[in-house]
Amino acid sequence: MRLLFLLLPFLSFASEFSFWEGSSYERFLSLAERARVIYLGETHDRKDIHEFQLRVMKDLHSKGYSLIILMEAFQQQFQDALDEYIDGEIDEEEMLKRTEYYRRWRFDKELYAPLWRFAKEKGIRLFALNIPSELLREIRERGIEEVKSHYLPKKLMPFRRKHREFLRKAMGKHKIKDEKHFFDIQLAWDMGMAFRIAKVALFHPEEKLVVIVGSGHVWEGSGIPERVNFLLGEIPQLVSFVDEDYLYFLFSRDFSRESSSANSRREPN
What we know:
Elements: E1 4-9, E2 18-19, H1 22-34, E3 37-42, H2 47-62, E4 67-75, H3 79-86, H4 92-98, H5 101-104, H6 109-122, E5 125-130, H7 133-142, H8 161-173, H9 179-203, E6 208-214, H10 224-232, E7 237-243, E8 246-251
Parallel strand pairs: 1-8, 3-6, 3-7, 4-5, 4-6
Antiparallel strand pairs: 1-2, 7-8
Helix pairs in contact: 2-6, 3-4, 7-9, 9-10
C-alpha cells in the first residue's frame, strides 16, 4: 500500500495532502533531527508502517544520533528481559518468552522483529513502554481514581474535549457500552506511557527517544505527546500517526527553539 501524508502544525489542521515523495520524507527526517521525542504511530498489523518505522530508525542512527527505542509491545515489568536481550545475554525467543509477548501482545512477531533486531545489532537501548495488564484490570474494576501505582504519576491530565470525542467514536466502533471504564483505561494507558517516556527522557538527556506505539495514543498530538509536555514542560516532539489510509506528520510548536537538557523541565510527579 502506498502511503499518503499530511504535514501539520502541532494540534492544528491543514486542508491539503500530497503523495509521499523523497523530498517530503527528507523534511520529516529533518524535523526528527530537531526533535527530542519522535512518535512513530502505527496500525499494529500494517507491515508498511513498520517498514517506515525501521527506515526512520536506520536513517537517524546513520546520521550519528544516539537513540533509545520505546515499544508499546512490551510491558514495563519485563524490562530486565529486554536489557539482557540487547546485551546479548539471552536470545530472541527467550526474550519473547520472558516478556510474555505471545500472550500479552500477540501480533505477528515478524512485524516487530526487524525493529528489536536492529536495536540489538546497533546496541540501542530498548525500553518497555506499556503498563501491566494487571494494572488495567484493577482500574477497570475499581476506577482510576481509586488506584495508586508507581506506573502512574500522582497528577493525571484529563482528556481534552476534542480527544474525548475521538475516543467516543473509537468506543462506538468497538461496541463498548461502559464509557466510564473505557475512559479510565484509555487515560491510564496514555498517562502511564507518557510517565515512562518522561522518566526515560530525564535519565537519558543526550539521546533521542523513538516511540513505537499505536496511532490512537498519539492522534493529532493528543494522548501521550501532550501528557509528556504536561509532565516535563513543552519539549520538541515529532508525531506521525495513521488515520485510515493516510500517514500524518505533526511537529510541536516549539521547534523554533533549540532543544537541550537546559530547557525548562520539571520532574514528573
